[in-house]
Amino acid sequence: MKFNNIKLLLASLLVTVTITSCSNDDDRPTGPTGINFTGTFAQQDQMGRPAVNTVFVSSSMKDNFNTTVPSQQSGAFQTMFQNNLEALSPAYANPGDANALGLTSAQFTGLLATDVLNLSLDGTTTFFDGTNVLTGRALADDVITVELILIFGGENGLTASENPGLSDDNVNANDKPFSSSFPYLASPW
After folding, report:
1. Domain locations in the chain?
2. pTM of the full predicted structure?
3. Sign of the CA dihedral 65, 71, 77, 78?
4. 189 residues of the chain, pLDDT tens digit each
């Protein structure tokens, strides 16, 4: 009789634990529930045009640049960009020197200091193809080489004859083909 009471007590305890620990969680979402805007967010980095912030913003000014709204960046940072460009590139050694776009150092850095990715909604989308300039960016665009040409290449267009060793990153294609469907990125390794 005592053994049956112990079995009954253990069975009751097992049923009680099972009932209290189980819940009806079928109605709960099992994955992300959407964007959560609670909390505090801070702008960490602006990278509208790859490498521009990295190359032209002085270390002591990174936080200021990254938290400045783009419409105010050119006014606040163009002089610093121009000084850094002229110190970096021999293609702008003489007053009036221009790049492949025909822009002087002041004009070019005025454009670069507003770190946004421009986009053409009704034309060719490209970073630079010799005709269309900063009208967007396709995945296959060789953005770094284009930037190197505009910084170091001088006035001779895409030939970059003034400083050929500095005007090409020598990476001519992605390591894997891009997908033909959205999001168009190459598959991971």
Report:
1. 52-166
2. 0.71
3. positive
4. 565 666 665 556 555 655 555 555 555 556 556 667 677 777 677 888 888 888 999 999 999 999 898 999 999 999 999 999 999 998 888 888 998 888 999 999 999 999 988 888 898 888 888 788 888 888 888 989 888 888 888 876 666 667 888 888 999 888 899 988 988 888 887
State residue 139 phi and psi, 5-degree precision.
Answer: -55, -35
- DSSP single-letter state for residue 162: S
Q: Determine whether 54 is exposed, middle or buried from the number of CB atoms within 10 Å of its CB (0-12, 13-18, 19+).
A: exposed
The secondary structure element, H or E, covering residue 15 is: helix 2-21
Instruction: Report the distance separating Cα 120 and Cα 18, nearest Å.
Output: 61
Burial of 9 (0-12, 13-18, 19+ CB in 10 A): exposed
